[in-house]
């Protein structure tokens, strides 16, 4: 039986084992804060869809993975209002929304992964993908109001105010320290 070490992955495209450099396709609940000199991204939860040994392998799988998710690739900007990839409605980037992205990350130590590059593939409005409490672990006051409107107890909403630090890959766990904006 083949066993993987803690820092080892299997490429979803070529099935090669690899470590240290990881190319990923992920979906995240995130919001953008525009209060500083540069916009920053708060990530509530992140789920790794697939991981790859190279950009070439990621390129081979990108369209199929996004099609499986039912989300067309429509790369957003970083403005406060962007367009939903599905319905072309407005997405308030300052509120939590679902984002699809690809990234290139380097394992520096067992506990630190540095994000080298990120390419945003799509954002979805809450009409196309409503925010469910179990999908998001960090909520804003506006999100709590939405949760109350959807008959979610305020206690449940407060209990979920934490920052997720893991990305799952079909049973493999990838700890993250700083994402999107790491030096």
Structure description:
This protein is α+β, with helices and mostly antiparallel strands and 183 residues long. The longest helix is centred in the middle third of the chain and has 15 residues, at 55-69. Residues 138-144 and 146-183 have low confidence and may be disordered. Helices cover 16% and strands 37% of the residues. A hairpin with a 6-residue loop joins strand 1 and strand 2 (17-18). The protein has one domain (9-130, 167-175). It is built from three helices and ten strands. The strands form four sheets. The protein has a four-stranded antiparallel beta sheet with strand order 4-3-7-8, with helices on one face.
Helix-strand pattern: EEEEHEEEEHHEE
Name the shape in a single word: globular
Mean pLDDT across every amino acid position: 77
The largest sheet, given as strand count, sense and whether it forms a barrel, is: 4 strands, antiparallel
Number of helices: 3
Helix content: 10-25%
CA distance, first residue to last residue: 39 Å
Strand percent estimate: 35-45%
Query: What's the total number of strands?
Result: 10
Structural class: alpha+beta
Gyration radius from CA atoms, angstroms: 17 Å
Query: Number of folding domains?
Result: 1
Q: How are the strands of the biggest sheet laid out side by side?
A: 4-3-7-8
Low-confidence stretches: 138-144, 146-183
């Amino acid at each position: 039986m083949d066993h993987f070490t803690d820092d080892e992955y299997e490429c979803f495209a070529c099935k090669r084992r690899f470590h240290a450099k990881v190319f990923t396709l992920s979906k995240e609940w995130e919001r953008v804060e525009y209060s500083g000199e540069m916009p920053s991204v708060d990530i509530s939860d992140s789920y790794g869809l697939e991981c790859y040994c190279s950009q070439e392998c990621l390129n081979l799988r990108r369209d199929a993975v996004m099609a499986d998710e039912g989300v067309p690739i429509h790369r957003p900007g970083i403005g406060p209002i962007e367009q939903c990839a599905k319905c072309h409605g407005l997405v308030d980037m300052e509120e939590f929304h679902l984002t699809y992205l690809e990234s290139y990350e380097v394992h520096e130590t067992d506990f630190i992964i540095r994000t080298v590059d990120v390419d945003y593939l799509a954002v979805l409005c809450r009409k196309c993908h409503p925010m469910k409490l179990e999908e998001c672990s960090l909520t804003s006051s506006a999100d709590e109001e939405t949760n109350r409107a959807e008959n979610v107890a305020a206690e449940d909403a407060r209990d979920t105010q934490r920052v997720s630090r893991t990305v799952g890959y079909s049973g493999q766990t990838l700890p993250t320290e700083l994402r999107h904006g790491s030096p």
